[in-house]
Write a structure and sequence with these properties.
With 163 residues, the chain is of the alpha+beta class. The protein is built from four helices and nine strands. Bound molecules: fe (iii) ion.
């Protein structure tokens, strides 16, 4: 019996932790998304002018101008306004558009969408489910496995590298 226990302990001790660790540390479960409401004046104090324009006024950064469209590190992209985890490097792909693009959010409950009829187009706008911050738009011309393309402004995101 004692010998058997020792074998189990030895086997556990020898299991390489790295082998079972995912390449990217993702939130295993959706966060409890409680709505965060702030006044425009509060957001102005917390965000840079460019963040405010995009996140709170539905602006769009110029293509190929943001910090994250050509960014390839492993990690999680969070809302620049409230810190909610939104996208993973595992779902990022090069869309050629000049904006960071993802096939899906880390959890469906972390983003919400609205119909956007501005600029004479009908598009699906996406925003952070917690703070309502505008992120970008989602289209149905993405690659597998979802066929979706979440086209997101770099300025709406902050990157947290995998540990
Ligand atoms: Fe947010």
């Amino acid at each position: 019996m004692k010998f058997r226990c020792l074998i189990v302990i030895f086997a556990l001790g020898c299991t390489p932790a790295e082998a079972t660790k995912p390449a990217v540390d993702l939130p295993a479960k959706p966060a409890k998304v409680e709505k965060l409401t702030r006044s425009n004046e509060e957001w102005k104090k917390l965000l840079t002018p460019q963040q405010y324009e995009v996140l709170r006024e539905q602006g769009t950064e110029r293509a190929f101008s943001g910090a994250l469209w050509d960014h390839h590190r492993k990690g999680v992209y969070k809302c620049a306004a409230c810190g909610l985890e939104l996208f993973s490097s595992a779902d990022k792909f090069d869309s050629g558009t000049g904006w960071p693009s993802y096939t899906r959010p880390v959890h469906a409950a972390h983003v919400e969408s609205d119909v956007d009829l501005s600029h004479g187009m009908k598009r699906e706008e996406v925003h952070c489910a917690r703070c309502g911050g505008h992120l970008g738009h989602v289209f149905d011309d993405g690659p597998p496995p979802t066929g979706r393309r979440f086209c997101i402004n770099s300025v709406s995101l902050v990157f947290e590298p995998a540990k």
